[in-house]
Amino acid sequence: MIAPRPVIASGLVLTAAFLLAACTTERRTAPSRTASEQLMLSAAVDRAAQNLSLNVPHGTRVFLDASFFEGTDSRYAVASIRERLLRRGARLTANRDDADMIVEIRSGALSIDENSLVVGIPQMDVPVPLAGSFALPEIALFKRDRRQGVAKFAAVGYDAKTGELISVSDFDMGFSEQTQWNALFVLSWTTSDILPEDRGPVLRPPPDTPPQERK
After folding, report:
1. What is the pTM of this model?
2. Cα–Cα dist 154/104, whole Å
3. Does residue 59 fall inside a structural domain?
4. In this structure, what CATH number is given to the domain that contains residue 122?
């Protein structure tokens, strides 16, 4: 019995969609760290730094001690904390002897977590008698691939002369997230909070445009 044409057409469409999905790849590490990864970490860092709850009296001369601060992108994180202290009225000094207050900062987390949810058949090695095995590709009716940036900072401030405790912060956290969704082999979309929703491409006039024509 010959199958009706609509059934054959539907089968061909599904087969083509499966083949296209199986050939789609995404390279995330060229160069070694992608812009998305850097943005994810820096967004988490900025949010943790904004939440820094250390109490610094306005006008206090502060020496920031980052000798206990370690982690990926630690220089950017220290700079974000410096900005936070300045916005709260601190007067940063490069010389420890000139400071009224020493602020020691430390990092409890500064990295990216990943987790995936697959509804379908995960990738697996299928044994073949007398021939070893072959890799069966992932067949996902639905897939969620989530990456989350996590930053955890803490700080302690003490008198530069006496060593007396002045203030201790909470363990201040910052998070960022980017999630890739795939459904039915051909549907794909991304949700993210690493950029403002109203941020669009920056358009600049060509280099030879006269200044009076630029807008």
Report:
1. 0.68
2. 8
3. yes
4. 3.40.50
